[in-house]
Specification:
0% helix; four-stranded antiparallel β-sheet; mainly beta; globular; 8 strands
């Protein structure tokens, strides 16, 4: 559950997962059908303002008002190195 204002939303290409950013800098993944939490990504130092999935749904990018864009690998649930 978000403990801060939601600032961005994006569905995965298959529509099964909803990614949401918020004002406390975290990005949440939730099951789009049930709303169950799947994972919380931590990496920004300010609010996550935008989210975009890759066409294959294996990665997504999140942009923050701290000036960073992070590329997340959904196969390992971490920042893409």
């Amino acid at each position: 559950m978000h403990s801060a204002d939601v600032t961005s939303l994006a569905y995965s290409p298959d529509g099964r997962v909803l990614a949401s950013g918020n004002s406390n800098s975290k990005v949440y993944l939730r099951d789009a059908r049930t709303g169950a939490d799947l994972h919380i990504f931590i990496g920004h130092t300010s609010e996550a303002r935008c989210i975009a999935y890759s066409p294959d749904g294996k990665t997504f990018a999140s942009g923050s008002s701290d000036g960073t864009v992070l590329l997340w690998d959904l196969t390992i649930l971490d920042i893409n190195q």
